[in-house]
Write a structure and sequence with these properties.
351 residues, alpha+beta, Pyruvate-ferredoxin Oxidoreductase, domain 3, Alpha-Beta Plaits, seven-stranded mixed beta sheet, 14 strands, 23% helix
Length: 351
Amino acid sequence: MCPDAESGCTVRADRGERVVNEAAALPNAGRFFEIRFESIGGLGAHAAGQVLATAVVLRMGLNGANFSSYGSEKKGSLVRSFVRLGPAERPIRTSAPVETPDVIVVFHAALLRNPATLAGLRKDGTFIYNAPPRLVPEELAGLPRTARVIRVDALGIAVKEQSRPNAVLLGTLCGAFPFLSAETILEALSEEFAGRHPEAVASNERAFRRGAKEFEVLEGVGRAEGDLPVVRPEPAWGYETQPVGGIIPEPGNTAWNDLSASRTGSLPVFNRERCIHCGVCDLVCPDFCLVWDDGEKGGRFERELMGVDYRYCKGCLRCVESCPASAMTKKAETPGLADRLRVPLFPDLIG
């Protein structure tokens, strides 16, 4: 794929097709327009970056680049997808991560707890995050006071339309930035799925169009002044950078791991009055997130289930499917719900 600046059109190198399209004007002519998708595995951030970059290069007369950074490809793994856009006559000679983005798009609200999610946003930037209406997470106070903050219930829309959050968030991105042609990017999104999953094309279109319309611009959210500083959350520790005393700043054992970002909209809610403390849920739980304690002295049960430590629950809902007494039920995860219902598994170690 390459832009043909002289003819004012683009060339599709794999098929030799020329797609005539007047070049879009970027918001800031003097620099690249940079986008960072913050996500987890399974929500489609990598595919969203590919679709966006493909559309702007092949159909919008711009130059563009996309690549993603992630660890093991599994549900819950941290994923960052970077998109860099520029005018057709300006080559993109860098493949460095986007550290000072014009736009940050957050696919999962649990990622807001990590300061690196907000890091580097420009003072005039735009912050788009996936969350249901009502509560505004306190972490967003760390955004620049002058930044634009947009909330969209991408997961809720995706569930209703039988799509994925990436289609909704691409629509919101186009709604927030008119220079990104919504019809052009929707066409690229449809082509991405037409061959492998043709049944998803119509549902993705509905989700995309709802995302372009059903977002909310929030006022008075950020409190920070100026551009946010760049944070590199995973430094390459070595002899020169190792903290004094050999400290490991982010322990990697299972007690310290936080799996809450693995949940994609639902969690199990425990009703103790209905529980028969049979232990079936504990047998099927892959993450040992259920909290047990001694039963009442002289009572019916020697051990009783106390609740769920949502720090370690990735929302597989096997406990809900297996409970013979319906003491575990599936609920939509609204902001703050897990924190209110959580029963700590290691209260003396992690509060």
